[in-house]
Amino acid sequence: MVAPIIELRDVRKSFGPVDVLKGVNLKVYPGQVSALVGDNGAGKSTLIKGLAGVQPYDSGETLIDGSPAHLATPKEASRLGIEVVYQDLALCENLDIVQNMFLGREETHQGTLSNGEMEKHASATLGSLSVRTMKSVRQKVSSLSGGQRQTVAIARAVLQKAKVVILDEPTAALGVAQTEQVLNLVRRLADQGVGVLIISHNLADVFQVADHINVLYLGTMVAQLETKETNNNDVIGYITGLKSVEPSAAGAAR
Amino acid sequence: MTTVPAAPKGQAPATSRFDLGKILLEGRAFLALIVIFVVFTILAPQSYPTVGNILVMASHVSVYAILSIGMLLVILNGGIDLSVGSTLGLSGMVAGFLMQGVKLGGVTLYPAVWVVVVIALAVGALVGLVNGILVARLKVAPFVATLGTLYAVRGLAELMTNGLTFSSLDGDPALGNTGFDWLGFNRILNVPIGVLVMIVVAVLVSLVLNRTVFGRWVYASGGNERAAELSGVPVRRVKVRVYVASGVCAAIAGVILASELTSASPTAGTSYELTAIAAVVIGGAALTGGRGNIRGTLLGAFVIGFLSDGLVIVGVSAYWQTVFTGTVIVLAVLLNAVQYRGRRRAAQNGAGSPPSATAPSTATAGADRTVLEKAAG
Question: What's the ipTM?
Answer without folding.
Answer: 0.79
